[in-house]
Structure formats: C-alpha cells, structure tokens
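Reopening: structure tokens for the adenosine-5'-diphosphate complex, inputs below.
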Amino acid sequence: MSFEKKILCIGAGYVGGPTMAMIAKKCPQYQIKVVDINPARIDAWNSNELPIYEPGLKEIVENVRGKNLFFGTDIDESIKEADIIFVSVNTPTKTFGFGAGKASDLQYIEKTARNILAASDRGKIVVEKSTLPVRTAESMERILNGNDKGMRFQIVSNPEFLAEGTAISDLENPDRVLIGGHPSEEGLAAVEEITKIYANWVPREKIITTNLWSSELSKLTANAFLAQRVSSINSISALCEKTGANVDEIANAIGKDSRIGSKFLKASIGFGGSCFKKDILNLVYLCEHYNLPEVADYWENVVKINEWQTTRSVKRVLRSLFNTITGKKIAVFGFAFKADTNDTRESPAHLVVRELLDERAIPVITDYKALPDAKRDLSDVLDKVQFTEDPYEAAKDAHAILLCTEWKQFAALDWQKIYDLMSKPALVFDGRNILDGEKLKKLGFEFMSIGKA
Ligand code: UDX
Ligand code: ADP
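Re-run output (same inputs, fresh job):
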C-alpha cells in the first residue's frame, strides 16, 4: 500500500510515542515512523510492555502498529524518506556551563538538526514538538539552511500540550492545537501542511496558527501559569494550617468564580513532572538573558515555593514523630509525580525520600507503576531504601505513611488492616488530600494533610 505522506518523529518518549500513535490512529492514509537512538526503548515500543504507562495507549498502539505506525532505530534512512519530521527529543535543564540549573540543554536538538541535514537529499518541513526556549527555531534554521546542496527547510513550532496520565484523551480532544510558522509564503504553506494533519480529527476552529516565536513562548507560558496556580494554592495551604481554614473548601469557593475557574487548585505536597520546573527555570533564564531581573525573580519564586511545600511537609511529619525518625521505617505511598503514569521526573516523592534519608529513616516505597523508575532514580542509595508493590507490606511496622501520589487505589485500601500493621502512633500524612481524614482518625490513626489544621 502506498501512503499519502511519510511522517517521521525523532524521539520515542512520553510526547513522541503517544502523539504519533494518535496521528496514526486518526490518519490511516499516512505512514508514521518513530525513531530513537535508544534501542531498548524502541524494542519496548515493539513489544507487549510499552516503555511508558498511559491509560488507553496500549490499545491504540496494538491496533495500528505494523499497519501505519512503525518504531525503529534506522534514523538516517527514515529521515531520507520522510516528508515531514517532528522533533521530540529531550531538552533537559543544563547542568554545566552558562545557564547551568536553568537554561535548556539544547545538545540533543542541535544533534538532531545536524542529523536531519546530513541524511536529507531534499528540503523538508521540520516540526518542533519538544518544548523549547523562544527563538530556538532560529538556530535550527541556521543549521539546516546553511547547506550548500540548495535544500530549503521550513521550521514549524507545534508544541504538545498533553498532560501525562490523560495523554490519550488530551490528544483525541485537545483544547487547542497550536502551530507557529514564518509569515512568508513557504512558511504559511508549511503551517497549512501541519494543520491538514490535525484537521483529520480536530475541528479547524481549535487549530490556532501564530508566528513562530509566539508558538514557542506560549508553551512555556502555559506551563508557567499552571504551575503558578499550584504554587499559589500551596502557599495558601500553609496559611490554612495556621488559621483553621480548610484549603479544599477555599479551592472550591474561589474555583466557583468563573474568572478563576476550578482547575489546578488542588493543594498538594508539590508539583512534579518533566515540564513545570524545567520550563519555568528556562523562562527565568530567558528573562535574565533579556535583562529582566524582576520578571526572572517573580517566576523563580513559583519554583521555590514548590520545593518549600515539599520540605515543610516532611518537617511536619518529623515534628509529629518526636523530632526523630532515625532508624524508623517510613512508608512512602506513591513515587510517580502524579497518578496514572510511571513517570517520576521531578516527583516530589523523590525529594521526600532524600530528606527522609538525611534524617536516617528507612523509606519503604510503594507504587502501582513507577517502581522501576524509582529504583533507577535512587540507584545511589538502593541499600538504604526498600521497595514493594504491596502497600500493606510497605505499611508493616512503619511509623508513618507519607502519601505523595494521588493513585485512587490508595483511598480504596483496607485502612483498618493498615492500622493494625503499623507501629504506633500510626501517622498518616496525606500529601494529596485524597483520604477521608475523619474516618482514619476514628480508626486510631494520627492524621495530617495539606492545608488543614
Ligand atoms: C504539564 C501540562 O499540563 C501539559 O500541558 C504540558 O504539556 C506538560 O506539563 P504534566 O506534567 O503531565 O503536564 O502534568 P499536570 O497534570 O499538568 O500536573 C503537573 C503537576 O502538578 C503534577 O505533579 C500534579 O500532581 C500537580 N498538580 C496539578 C497539583 O499539585 N495540583 C493541581 O491542582 C494540578
Ligand atoms: P519527552 O517527555 O519530552 O517525550 P523523553 O525523555 O521521554 O522526553 O523522550 C525523548 C526521547 O528522545 C528519548 O527516548 C531519547 O532517547 C530520544 N533522543 C534524544 N536524542 C535523540 C537523537 N539525537 N536522535 C533520536 N532520538 C533521540
């Protein structure tokens, strides 16, 4: 069968994998190929155990894999064949040199651009899918169009707004699709090419087209605004604890104001994930670069409040356990940065475990999907941490439970049984406000949660 278009995605991660699976499902007329430099990851995409957990993803992949969706490591050959290339490689925070700790590390992006240039024998549309600092497309263009073979590449920005845990429904029914390009004739034609892909299932009025820089900066801005809401409600949670106000009641009351809205007002032990911290720090770096120190400070505080929220939670637990947890078993319920994902990047649970270790406690971690990633993150301290898939086993002889991830299974556990297994006073700290505190207190637990006196 011949396909109308050949689409390639470089980078088979949390963004590239699900996005291409959805395009393949919605567009049987296109051939979709996803490549990665990591052969283990590609093997996993071709197996029954996908490398990432996302509700509904496996069913889609199993339906289209081998028909119009393919995973491989033959990067050069795939580049040569492709008409359109999505770039979805990682852009972590730089750990060295200028901008270390804030700026995005663009080495994978640059390598990918050079790779595309070397393997191509004609110009193509290159789509930035990864979240990037504003004006990255300019560097991509310099690399790609600085060739002497007469090839012209068009760069388009199409940031992905999916959230993990809800990736499939977000992709199937997005609030909007954003596509940015140059206002030139070729630029507009490239934007229209990408629009046509999404128009296979997304209503045209939800497809927004902008200039390149607006598109790049919109993604950073969206994440900064969402993270700011979480840090704002988390800052108020601390005031609630001092005053007897209840943060869930406040969130409900202010969320009813249509100007504020009800989403992203759930107080928590802290936000995590691959985007929020990285993108805000990137924004901070950009503001510093453009000599806007006040704006940089403003956004940096959103990240600082987040870390403070996690740390102060651990301190509350410590105080309740007579200011010493040395040698005490402490159960950590959930290591993923949120429910319904195996992703642990920037998870608040990670900071919690490190702080427990600083106090020489014995953390016992349980999670429904994230234990393999947890073991990788804690590989330097494996002899000091325990892992178990069984929450009852984690609770056995523990002096406290710190609930860090809102897996709904935790609320449905047999808490009487847990109480009987634990050391007394059995303390539960609900870092996600998903448990029924009154019920737990009746069972005999000492109970604490975020933003409630
Ligand atoms: C986010 C953006 O939502 C998405 O558009 C972007 O593409 C990538 O970054 P994601 O990191 O997958 O997605 O998760 P999200 O649902 O936004 O949650 C981020 C963090 O904030 C999680 O740790 C979550 O538990 C926390 N959170 C979220 C809260 O603590 N309270 C809330 O009310 C909402
Ligand atoms: P995201 O959450 O943004 O999708 P991930 O880290 O999950 O980020 O995925 C990025 C993927 O990109 C990784 O699987 C990584 O191996 C891959 N990658 C990085 N650089 C290259 C490259 N030059 N060529 C192909 N794949 C790459």
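The longest helix spans residues 212-243. Residues 3 and 29 are 6 Å apart (CA to CA). Marking as resolved unless the reporter disagrees.
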